[in-house]
Amino acid sequence: MNGFPPGTHLLLVIATPLVGGIVAWVLGARGRHAVRQSAAVTAIFTLAGAGWLIVRSLQSPEAASGEPYAVIEVPWLVDGIFDVRLSLGLDGLSLWLFGLSALLSLTAVLVSWEAIKERTVGFYVLLLVLEAAMLGVFAARDVILFYVFFEFTLVPLFFLIGIWGHEERRKAAVKFFLYTLAGSVLAFLGLLTIVLWHASHAGTVTFDIDTLTAGMAAHPLPMNAEGGWLQMVVFLALFAGFAVKVPIVPFHTWLPLAHVEAPTGGSVDLAGVLLKIGIYGFLRFSLPMLPDATAVAAPWLFGLGVVGILYGALVALVQTDLKRLIAYSSVSHMGYCVMGLFALEAVSVEGATLQLINHGLSSAGLFALVGMIYERFHTRSIPNLGGIAARAPWLTVFFMLFTFSSIGLPGLNGFVGEFMVLAGSFQRAWSGVSTAYGPAYLTMSVAAVVGVVLGAWYMLWAVERVFFGGSREPPKSASQHSHGAGRPDDHGHDADAPPDDACDLKWYETLALVPLVVFVFWIGVVPATFLEPSATAVRKSFRASAEAFDLRMHMDVSEHRTLNPSTPHARNTKASVVHLP
Amino acid sequence: MQQLSPSVLLVLVPALPLVGAVLTMLLGRSLRSRAHLPAVVGIAAAAGVSLVLLAATAAQVGNSSDAHPEPVRPVEMITTLWQWATVEDAYTPPSNSEALIPGIVLPRDTSGVRAFSIPVALRLDPLTATMLSIITCVGLLVAIYSIGYMHGDPGYARFFALFALFVFSMSMLVAASNFLIVYVFWEAVGACSYLLIGFWFRRPEAARAAKKAFLVNRVGDFGLAIAVFLLWMTYGTLDFHDTLSLDGTILPGILGQTRLADAGGIVGGAVGAAICLLLLLAACGKSAQLPLHVWLPDAMEGPTPASALIHAATMVTAGIYLITRSAPLFMACPGALAMVSIVGATTALVAALIAVVQNDLKRVLAYSTISQLGYMFASLGTGTMLGFTAAIFHLVTHAFFKALLFLGAGSVMHSMGGVIDMRRFGGLWRVMPMTAATFLAGACALAGVAPFAGFFSKDEILTSLHSKAFPSVHGNHGPESPAAETAHLHLTSWMHDGRLALDASSTYGLDAIDRPEIWQILFWMSLVTAGLTAFYTFRAVFMTFTGPTRVPEEAGHHAHESPAVMTLPLVILAVLSAVAGWWLFSTHWLSHFLSATPSLTAPSVARTVVPHLFHIDLAIQGTLAAAIGIAVAAIGHLGRRSDSPQMERFLGPLGSLFANKFFFDQIYTGLIVRPLEALALLAAIIDRSVIDRLVDWIATIPLGVGAIVRQLQSGLMQRYALAGVMGVLMIVLALAWQLRG
Fold first, then answer.
1. Do residues A451 and A332 make contact, with C-beta atoms less than 8 angstroms apart?
2. Which among A132, B272, B380, B411 could bridge B562 via Cys, Cβ 3.0 to 4.6 Å?
3. Burial classification of residue A206, based on how many CB atoms lie within 10 Å of its CB (0-12 exposed, 13-18 middle, 19 or more buried)
4. Between chains, do B679 and A314 touch, taking CB under 8 Å as contact?
């Protein structure tokens, strides 16, 4: 089977969910069970295909040399000045995100097993379309496909939230859609500008990302007064699209609402994968293509990342809705990614890319578990819950695990990314910025470490209230309606309630969580497995920006020196003047 | 059979308890009341292996002999298991790197580019071997005790799984040879502690105490994290040991022999001091020192065996381990070193004062643990070989007698139906003679009664403080503080471009606190603490075991001696508490053995070695303090019943200060928790009513989608979604068309 062309393999993996969606649709008449079974089988097949592709890719010579793997190109418009191809492929940047999408899609199907009872066909079809779109967005190697898949992730989720969501689903769906669409339209205009600028220099219109990156290096967008600061304008346009997606504070307010209202399966995909597209976009487009603008914006975005960490954590601290709390924790955790990315240090950028996967696993797990709690007790309100540990020990074990992963307990995955991001940030603060920025960078890095303490605070507070203590839950009426927990004599109020098998995890719930746990441990114990394959691609993506940033910092230093030749700093640092460019 | 190599044995020590933990977790349900088996067997095997390793290491160090005073050779062995993470070319030192750290003439990689490389490496040296033996052996005794103590608990299997997991984590912590891996297990033991404090999670106090312990520890971890970052920036590695690079050059580890052999290898000055103070903060968190001690008394909500092992004998000593391990770093910063002693002696005194007015037997022991750990810190801070070895000596004896006391308290609690308030029982020696006798042995050791173990280790600590306070008496010549010589490296301009506006060669007056007057105060504080220790210990003994027999009604008719599975560990620990001190002291075995630890062979430490002398006057002072303490306790509590309220009234306003634990909890709530909560509330309000509205407004108005929103709200969402996608596609096509034409 090794002769099986990897490009076809990739195409098949992306197409499987679409085929599965059609199958599910056809089976719709046979009832809910057939539909969800076919969806689960599809997701398992896709995951197996994706996993196999990843293994093949790791063994391929392309991976060793940092080239994209499984490239498949379809000429679309190739004549004269046009060189438009639709092209797919995987490289170090997208490899793990691709796998994560396949993994979390299975989780999303399984957590919806009992939760979705109405219009099941539509739900699973949309979930599978969403999976195809997520796989596609990471596999796209040209701007057109990227954008099409990007938009196609929005539509299914919009309906998932709008139709199967909770009370305020309409409002949440519209808000989610408007925010991300507004952002993505701007981002698209930015990308078009890049394409046109490249065309005006190279003479061919191409949408291929690699060609565009090379073109931008040869003929960068102007970043000065004569050029109208075009590079900055394009950067801001892309920023609008990606920052909403991440989300970077203050563009985050759609997120808590969307999460709280989304069905569990939607939340899993949203938190686990869709937020990652923002950071992925920065890594794929902004950093390699717009290095000068990135260099100017980096300190601000580094700061916004830190603000996000602290702000998200603080707001999470006072939430009473468990799902909203985890949504704000996402804001906080994505802050680490933003910070690590714009520290522009090898350690931190690699840490940030790993943090994407880590946050995907832990937040997906937490959202899935909150969904399970909601199914049992019909509330997500922290004050109304309590003592779940006594009744559902395994559910508690899993929740604790993902909590520990989320608060960065070493040995689990969350720690690795966080630690590397912070190590890189300190490195940047220590010796990578000019005097004017040094103290600010150091302060921000220390503040980000404070975020680690706050993160433990709100998560453990929630765990204490929801899982420990006497069984205050569930409110009687809810208990009687919930599946399995509906005991008329209400054991729940007894402080010594025995573990209740009916209340604990079902087989499909365990199946949804166990694969995530495997990776939580794997990444925590041997992160090298996941860091190495992406190292080359990550390095390539941020190198130009890091160089531009270093140059800017050096110019700052020399300016500073000529302006204030008598400052003590200048006296101490004579030696380095020689090395300035 | 092929002989097992030391490196395999070293890996087995943490691995066996880990296997035990996993098996207990998986098989817990089917094993039922035998669920302890995998854990206990795993820990027992690990204990055996540890003792073999201890013997093997000791054989390598060679015999102690005052006749051959030549310096001890460092003994260490490294086993690398796997590469945790590597980032190539992670850091290019600044371009003027030649001038970076003038003291270092070590073979550095010429390019100056460093890889961020973290190997999971284990080490074996005298310090690690000692710690491993204590952890696994005391762990085994406590585990056996727990078979009886935890019998019938619904979480029986969970307890043993967590217990074995803790032994694994703690073994890894002391065996790791890399600061990052130390950090990993530093937090892992904290997580085990969290789960064991909250073991009876139905009790809200237990859940709250667990959270508090984790959070306060996180503050300490914050210090450790930043210290690790600074170490990485300063040394370009986080390994303790030297490593060989591919081309055969030696990459010196932070505490490797290459760097230690070089006088200027360790960075001092502001950066060095910052690293040391951050390490001290971390140690304060884990070892419950001022101002981060507040979690330990509350941690008594956990099962008593967990308190005995984790919150008395082992985990809380991680801070002492860390500072001993980092001794060369501290030796380069006399100010930071003196801070260790100041924190330690202050904590010792404050905790002892609080212990005086406690009525809960376990809390008396908890504050006494804080106080004794303070002693160890005070000893470490002296920065002499005697100080370091005395701290570890006290760590060892303390592990024996404090585990004994906690298990004794557990035995009392077990028999009294869970009541632990000393005012509610008395005269228990008639009910449980075995517990009473062993508890008395532990109390004598804690109070420092000769010839029990605590007497000797405490005497060494007092001696080390005395030698700093009155150097002339001890024949210390030359510089007051030998460390001071290495302190001032010529670090001007090593921070490239002067980008951090620090004068790196100065510690901003921190070093000025290293003065004899300060040490004299610390010495007297420690002596007073010794008296207080004897007082509160014997107050507890008298209140619990003497007087007319009183048993609370919760005990029912079951007030009796504990089963043999619980008393046997007590007896073994009592014997150790009685004889270990004399044996280790008279042979100087431990101090000689420890001095071969690489960190302690650094010239800065090694040159502080003084001949072993028994200072009879100091021994008399210590014994006198203990005797006064015991006498006062006897006067106050023997014969007539005396309750704490009387004690408080007797002390007046001071009594209420002590009873309220110096108001630390209230101060933290008022100064940190409440303001943060207010800030969080403010942030949430801003989030909802300012940012959300503002962004909505900005997003909607310029795009002119108000009309569409109205349409959407009339239920035609699909149309807009479709329109969005179609529109975008049309733009693409139109553009392509236009360019073509």
1. yes
2. B411
3. buried
4. yes
